[in-house]
Amino acid sequence: MITVKNLCKEFKNNDGTVNKVLSGINYEVNKGEKIVIVGPSGSGKSTFLRCLNLLERPTSGEIYFDGEEITAKKVNINKVRARMGMVFQNFNLFNNLTIMDNIILAPVKLKIMSKDEAKAKATELLKRVNLLDKADAYPASLSGGQKQRIAIVRSLCMNPEMILFDEPTSALDPEMVGEVLDVMKSLADEGMTMVVVTHEMGFAREVATKVLFMDEGTILEENTPKEFFENPQIKRLQDFLSKVL
Amino acid sequence: MTLIELITTGYAVPCSVLSDWIAKTADRFNTAFIEQNRYIQYFKGLGVTLEVALFAGIIGIVIGTIMALFKLSTTEDGKPTIWNYIASIYIDVIRGTPSVLQLMIMYFVIMASVDNQILVASLSFGINSGAYVAEIVRGGILAVDKGQMEAGRSLGLSKAATMWHIILPQATKNVIPPLGNEFITLIKETAIVGYVALSDLTRIANQIASKTYDAFMPLIGAAVIYFVIIKILTILLGNLERRMRRSDNR
Fold first, then answer.
1. Vertex B153, ends A108 and A109: CA angle to 5°?
2. What's this model's pTM, rounded to 2 decimal places?
3. What digits encode the pLDDT tens for the residues A88-131?
């Protein structure tokens, strides 16, 4: 579904030096896979994820989505992003809109559905995450866990073919992590293609089809969760796991 | 001498000075504001002042918002565009020259053939104000969390659509206080429209002062009128700001 070839990303520092964040990543995500990416902070995992929908422009390399090279110049990236949801660490709900308007804004403006259709779909999704009573509230009045469940609903309402999760539980109070992970698990059970950057090793173990370990801008190890956690191959991953588990 | 006598005679002198002064002041007030229905002229002048300020304010907000967007525009890979330079030059030129000169250049050079002074003055002040509003709006937009733009873009909305539906409504709340400040400055700045023969409040006061050989009353009177108008505006802005902030913490 998504193929990454030799992806590099560099940031220029203020003093003119170049900070190489991703150095030549090759990877392929197939339909229905749940890829969980773990690694120490600064390893480039979030940048990698943000490159997949071009929120970060890669310095070089190619990304193919359904066979189409989305890194090509002439591609309408908005069309691609409409098919690829994203959930952020800081929720990023639109502060000036009610929950309902947050959810239906993009599908209605992009003419994917009529306003009534979008509202019906949003209502159904809100019921599913038990937040229908918040439809007319503003984001400021919601807890972190509620905001993140709404953010997931917002991207689901676009009927995406895959969803990218950028540390979806990292900004949450501990007691709210569970409710968000539950929603993600149920999505995974339905067969949604997911790429998840997270520190929740339990989630990786339980839900992932593949777990990737990233450090210093490359994928150092890739394996099924069972092998990944029980039989890590490289020293760096063994060290990492001994610290986080 | 009885106590009564002491009081009455003792106060007699200052009393007469005071009553003289009151009578004279009332007379001057009469000359400056009442005689020949002069107060109507002040109100007409105030009308011109407010008309120019209002039109200029609207023009300033429109130009300023466009220039702010120009200044913030980047290509998809984050490089500056030609619009950046246009906006920067505009802001530099306007902020680098006196507004009274801009007004005169507009009236005597650029729009020399146009007769409508209100139009010329509004345009001139609007273009001037736009440069300051541009920086205010730019600051207001930059103060909106950049995750809001990312969220909009990640859903497939264009940059323009996200700007319009998400960023600008939130930026509006940020810019109300400095924009109010700018408008207050603008009202007072219009006091120079006398240079292009527009009879605004300041010019009217000045004319009446020279006609009645009394500068005190007309000038102080005009100052009081400016002050009252701006005080009312300040209160209205405070209310607006409070109301907008209330929707924040629902």
1. 15
2. 0.83
3. 999 999 999 999 999 999 999 999 999 999 999 999 999 999 99
Q: Do A106 and B145 touch (CB under 8 A)?
A: no
Q: Among A55, A96, A110, whose Cβ lies nearest the Cβ of B153?
A: A55
Does residue B113 fall inside a structural domain? yes
Instruction: Write the CA distances from A51 to A7, A35, A88, A213, B32, integer angstroms.
Output: 9, 15, 14, 17, 73
What confidence tier does B5 reach under pLDDT thresholds 50, 70, 90? low
Interface of B with A (CB under 8 A): 76-78, 145, 147-148, 150-158, 161, 165-166, 169-170, 247-250
With respect to residue B39, please indicate whether it lies within any of the assigned structural domains. Answer: no
Q: What is the pLDDT of residues B189-199, one digit of tens each?
A: 999 999 988 99
pLDDT over 90 (residue B151)? yes
- Kindly report the average pLDDT of chain B as a whole number: 90
- Output phi, psi for A9, to 5 deg: -140, 125
Residue B111 resides in a domain? yes
Provide ipTM, 2 decimals: 0.91
Task: Give dist(CA A209, CA A223) in Å, integer.
Answer: 9
Q: Is residue B61 part of a domain?
A: yes
Sign of CA dihedral A64, A67, A73, A79: negative
Tell me which residue range forms the domain holding B64: 44-249
Residues of B in contact with A94 (CB under 8 A): 148, 151-152, 165-166
Contact B155, A155 (CB under 8 A): yes
Contacts of A176 (CB under 8 A, 6+ apart): A143, A144, A145, A148, A169
CATH code (residue B181): 1.10.3720.10
**Six token digits for residue A10:** 């560099």
Measured N-to-C along each axis, helices B3-29 and B216-246 cross at an angle, to the nearest 10 degrees, of 80
Q: Could you give the CA distance from residue B146 to residue A227 in angstroms, rounded to a whole number? A: 39
CB half-sphere exposure, A193, CA atoms < 13 A: 16
According to DSSP, the β-strands at A84-87 and A162-166 are: parallel
| Closest among A184, A234, A221 to A206, alpha carbons compared | A184
Name residues whose C-beta falls within 8 Å of residue A200's C-beta, 6 or more positions apart in sequence: A169, A177, A181
